[in-house]
Design a protein that fits this description.
This protein is an alpha/beta fold. The protein has helices spanning 18-29, 41-44, 67-76, 92-100, 113-145, 149-158, 164-171, 175-189, 194-204, and strands at residues 10-14, 34-38, 54-59, 83-87, 105-108. It is elongated and about 75 Å long.
């Protein structure tokens, strides 16, 4: 994994086998990763995650809450951390279910150290991209919320494909007023072009149904 390691990233290992937990902690720590280990899924639930990229390495067959059930509980709790499942008793159906639910990888024991390291690298990069996207969306939403209701209405109509004259007719105002609102909105949104504005509206899910 070399230079790609982010020392702020954290890998959470959940496995009821003490020997496996310690081996994984040692392996992941050897490439500069921060590692925390747990003996059961219930020990992890409720933990406050750091403001950094994270991923989970989880044994499918855990006491109490199984790995796959744990995956469901994370989704319910709106925790979108990438998961790498490991198991000594995996089967095709279990693998398919795990992957469909969003698991990054499913490794059968015994697995090569490098296979796990590669999977962890992929998972952390995926989480880093998710975090970046979330922050970008939050930034755009903050700019959008600084607009007046009229400016927001203009944005919705313009990004739906209406010309200024059509927007004016839809809103019952003059075309000059629309141009002023549109200019103010683009300035506040830091949009350099209509294409930028459309992209931002798409990120925020702004839609206006044309009659």
């Amino acid at each position: 994994m070399g230079e790609a390691i982010d020392t702020q990233s954290v890998v959470y290992v959940i496995d009821d086998d003490v020997g496996m937990r310690e081996a994984l902690k040692s392996l992941l720590g050897s490439v500069g990763l921060r590692v925390e280990v747990f003996g059961a899924a219930s020990e992890f639930l409720g933990k406050k995650l750091p403001d950094a990229a994270v991923c989970l390495v989880v044994d499918v067959r855990l006491p109490g809450l199984s790995g796959l059930d744990f995956q469901v509980e994370l989704t319910k709790a709106n925790i979108d951390a990438p998961i790498i499942f490991i198991t000594g008793h995996g089967d095709i159906a279990m693998t398919v279910k795990a992957m469909k639910a969003g698991a990054v990888e499913f490794l059968a024991k015994p697995f090569r150290d490098q296979d796990l390291l590669d999977a962890v690298k992929l998972a952390l990069e995926k989480d880093k991209a998710r975090r970046h996207s979330r922050k970008m969306t939050a930034g755009i939403r903050s700019l959008y919320e600084s607009l007046t209701p009229r400016e927001q209405q203009v944005i919705a109509l313009v990004t739906a494909g209406l010309m200024n004259k059509q927007v004016a007719a839809e809103m019952g105002v003059s075309e000059i007023t629309v141009k002023v609102h549109r200019g103010n909105a683009m300035r506040k949104m830091k949009a350099g072009s209509l294409a930028d504005l459309i992209r931002m509206a798409d990120v925020l899910g702004i839609r206006h149904s044309l009659k």
